[in-house]
Amino acid sequence: MKILVLMKMVPDIVEELEVASDGRSLDQEYLRFIVNERDEYALEQALLLKDGLGATVTVVAPDAPEVDDVLYTARAKGADRLIKVTGLPAGSGARATAAALAVTLPAIEGALPADLVLSGCQAIDDLDGFVAPLLAGALGVPYLGLVSRVSVDAAAGKAQVMKEFAGGVMGRFEVSLPALLGIQGCEKPPRYVPVAKVRAAIGAGGIEAVEASAGTAVAPVEVAALAKPEAAGHAEMLEGSAQDVAEKVADILAARGLL
Amino acid sequence: MAGNVWIVAESWKGSISDATYEALALGRELADGLGVRLEAVLLGHGARAAAASLGRADGVLYVDHPALADGVGEETSRALAALAAARGPGLILVPTTNVSWDLLGLLPARLEAPLVNFCREAVVSGGGVEFTSLLYGGKMAATVGAGAGPVVVAVLPGVRPAEAGKGGAAPAVEEVVADFVVGGGVRWLEYEEPEAGDVDITQQDFLVAVGRGISNEANVEVAEELAAALGGAVCGSRPVIDQGWLPLVRQVGKSGATVKPRFYVAAGISGAPEHTEGMKDAELIVAVNMDPSAPIFSVAHYGIVEDATDVLEALAEAVRKRKG
Amino acid sequence: MADPTTSSLLGIPGYAFLWVLTLAALALFGLRAYRLAAALGRGRREPRWDHLPRRLWMTVTNVAGQRRMFDNPGIGLAHLVIFWTFLFYAFSFAWNLLRGLLPFLPLPYADEVAWVSFPMEWLTVAAVVALAGAAVRRYFFTPERLERSRDATIILLLISLLLVTFLVGQGAKVAAEEGPASWSPVGGLIGGWLDGLGRAGAEHLFVAMWWVHMAAVLGFLAYLLYSKHLHLLASPFSVFAASLEPGGMPLPSEGAARLEEFTWRELYNGLACAECGRCDRACPAFTSGGVLSPKDLIHEVKLLVLDAARGDGHRDLIATVGAEAIWACTTCGACMERCPVFNEHIPLIVQMRRQLMVRGEVGTGVQDMLTGLTRYGNSFGQSPRNRAKWARDLEFEVKDARKDPAEYLWFVGDYASFDPRVQEVTRSVARVFHRAGLDFGILAEGEQNAGNDVRRLGEEGLFEMLRDKNLAALESSSHRAIVTTDPHTYHALKHEYGLNGRVRHYTEVLDDLVSSGRLPVAPSGGGRVTYHDPCYLGRYGGIYDPPRRLLRSLGLKVSEMPRNRSAAYCCGAGGGRIWMEDAPGGGERPAESRVREAAGLDGVGTMVVACPKDLVMFRDALKTTGLEGALAVRDIVELVEDAIGATQRSEA
């Protein structure tokens, strides 16, 4: 079985985000990039399938700051092949990324066809679309999103997947392979890989850099302004030690007859 | 913007979702502002009756097809794209919920139309529409314009009160034929309900919600103590569920439950839109977070910048004391 | 008097018979020794041959002097007597054996020499009495932690046999020689009872006793390495080959679970263990009812080595010990501090944790923390830019040591920087330093977690990464010395970064500042406090006196908890435990037990700590034990600041 995992870098929101002087983009000074959290689950799902059934796992990521570390970490966790797609400007929208991948991936020797393409179901900067369904549409393969369990019957060319609905309800679906799945979760959190193993992977190298072919995407959504959201309202802040504020909250509860 | 405003009605397990009415209320404003018709689009099989509650729209376009019975995005997106190609709407509003998720993702591809994602506000301005989208987990808001239609808009739950999208006389329902090829690559089999026996958090008056900021599974117990003192239950945001510290049925927000308790404590929850959509209507919300700029403080009534565990402990103590 | 070795036995000359017996015993002994050594040889190499004079001295004081046994003086003395009796016995036996094997030597037998036989007789009587007591206890009033094993019975019988045959032989000798020897009082007594045998009969009895005695001792020798008394021979070398580094860590490795992955020294722990259980009694994970028993851990190692000596030993030690037990260790070092044979439990634990890391079998809480540390350099998952945020509320500017040279570089540490419960104490330290006119600066976001806990969690690669970044940041700043508030950081910087004497704990610096008069304090009215020794400051760092001296110079009286100084009881937070859940099946948490211990002292209302993690753990324990009214937990610097405040008020 062949599995392709798409990963991408997004701004790290642990760091304070600031708006650049153009008023439309993020200030680059303290901006750091981190791998999209859901993509880590996509990788974990691929590795779990590899552990269980045997598979080759290829990880593809558009070039971005710190992406090499992410790719090597994937290798240390068990990914077989690492591909970095260069030439996509940082901050390219989901639309442009999907369009470029749709023409670039088929041109990479041995990357496609893959039985499964897995990607995070969404990212925090997906302003103009989600990469996974856009790419599925362009590649002409079935797509299902918000998937949190995958089991594969390779002989039958089918996968059974669980998709999350609301209130803990899961839907069971059958998907014909090849297919593209937007991953939301996994049986277990992404595995930890010790730094030494990542360093060894870095030492061994082996990231294939592939220049992106330009895809044809619809006109991107233009950001006119970027700002910290003005709150419709803001909480009344309670100050003091933990004990003090606890007493204040208890007062509020008591005043509302909730105690 | 010449075309009409469409709102894709979301019917799940036989009823129209609140998120649909919320988007409908927004769509009403936009259609009025643009001076165009507001049409609700309902896709299904033998589901025409559901159209009756969409009276705030000027009319309902109903597509009936066996392939649309289970709401599989592969099929609904094909049907809707075919219909839109035929009719040329200006805006297509889709509620951002798990039910509409695949439709939302695939429709822009099928229609080759732009998408405005994470939309939490839209206003008519100068003949066009200006959208506001929440990015980066709610930490930034982008003002976005879009070109000529059709434009697909992913509307965040809670954009308007659901009540504002309800009512009106029974709308005119036009049954239309969508000329689409069934894909068939994805087949719905069944729903799995969560295991019975656990608490139903939608039925609780008091909820103590924990998020990534509690940093440690042991602190779930601290939340349990407060919940016990209040006579309520513990719930959580996505990261806590991902870690396996709480079961999926305890999740609030997207993929989880929408709750409206009398009292909601959000401890160590930053307040990404995926979470706040599920709890913003609680009667009284107190948020505790170490980060004073956390978006949760714009949803909460009272805010505390402190270590969440400390406050939960102290609050449990204070509640126990008051209750004697 | 007949010489047993020159008279014939079953038609064979006695000495020849003795040669056969001796060679047989030595062969059995040698075979076992060879197999055990071969089993150890399957382990990895680990050099423990450096600093020979120091190692020899350590061996002399701890083996001959039995130093560590004296933490309980009664048991220490008893053990010392038994040990030296054993040596004396071994000496006289060796003498007799030599004389017996080489009858032409112009030597008497050892028991014919007054200065040997006289003490031997009395020691033997004492040993018989002691053994009888031990036998009664073992077989009639079995204490719970003693097991009745066949092994113990065989040993007890062999020892009884060799003791009794010696005494009866002495009696027979006296009887045969008609008249008591002046230096054989016990022999004389027994000889009196044997008068009826006549001279020839007594002589036969003597020869018989002699042979049985020699056979018993040789049997003991042959059996020793097959029995649990193996430690008698193995433990002295364990002391010799002990680690000379404080808090020494395992050699670089990918961790260990199988015999071949451990070093020989790690495996040797199993052979040296006397199963005395001191480690268990000192262990916070064990005594809080958790799943870890350091003694059982070592015992599992022993079983593995013994299996290997039988040609097997392919088990996975992590599976037999259990991951839960491996994660339960706080690395407080109490087990190693107490172990009389210098066994090294923590390196074993860390080896297995490393292996668990490689396998990816890490709890979610720890995993999150490690991921955060890799990315942000702190365990709070916060932006590095927030590291110096605590300093914003101060009335003065804290110097950035990366820009301006400072006398002291203050390495603040994670908890002191980020934990809101500790930040006020951190500001207190800053105010006191400022008041003393100390020229100090911080690295701000240039500082990262020092990696002490990370290393003990088995994440060696992450430790190295953090160390390298910190060393680079330290190099980029100009300072004379380093001061740190966190003992875990202190240990890492001092011993594991190799910065040694440049690193000081803030209690040392404060002690200097106060005693030199640079920091004027007004001694208070003589309150009574107790002081908790942080594991990484006390046991690891050997710093016990500066904090106590500082407290006394503030006018405070210091009462000691029953477990103090090197016997101090861990708060339960070390070795990465602070990021984990309480171990399953736990009873009272270590921190709770510790605050009860402090609260139980007469007239003590304050427990003083000198470690940010202690502050967090003990304040939490006060709440869970309901001791909040009875005891306060305060950082030592808060008391210093109180005393400064008093001088400022009196100056005003």
In short:
Chain A is α/β, with parallel strands linked by helices. In chain A, about 30% of the residues lie in helices and about 30% in strands.
What does this structure look like?
The complex is a heterotrimer of chains A (259), B (324) and C (652). Chain A has 259 residues and is of the alpha/beta class. Chain A has one domain (2-211): HUPs (Rossmann fold, 3-Layer(aba) Sandwich), CATH 3.40.50. Helix content of chain A is 28%, strand content 28%. The N and C termini of chain A lie far apart (59 Å). The model of chain A has no long low-confidence stretch (mean pLDDT 92). Chain B is an alpha/beta fold and 324 residues long. Chain B has two domains: 5-176, 3-Layer(aba) Sandwich (Rossmann fold), CATH 3.40.50.620; 201-323, TPP-binding domain (Rossmann fold). In chain B, 25% of the residues lie in helices and 27% in strands. A nine-stranded mixed β-sheet of chain B has the order 9-8-7-10-6-1-4-5-11. The longest helix of chain B has 17 residues, at 18-34. The N and C termini of chain C lie far apart (97 Å). Chain C folds into three domains: 8-236, no CATH class; 244-359, Fumarate Reductase Iron-sulfur Protein, Chain B, domain 2 (Orthogonal Bundle), CATH 1.10.1060; 367-651, no CATH class. In chain C, 55% of the residues lie in helices and 6% in strands. Chain C has 27 helices and eleven strands. Chain C has 652 residues and is mainly alpha-helical. Chains in contact: A-B, A-C, B-C. Chains A and B meet through helix 4, strand 7, strand 8, strand 9 and strand 12 of A and helix 3, strand 7, strand 8, strand 9 and strand 12 of B. Strand 12 (222-227) of chain A pairs antiparallel with strand 9 of chain B, so a sheet runs across the interface.
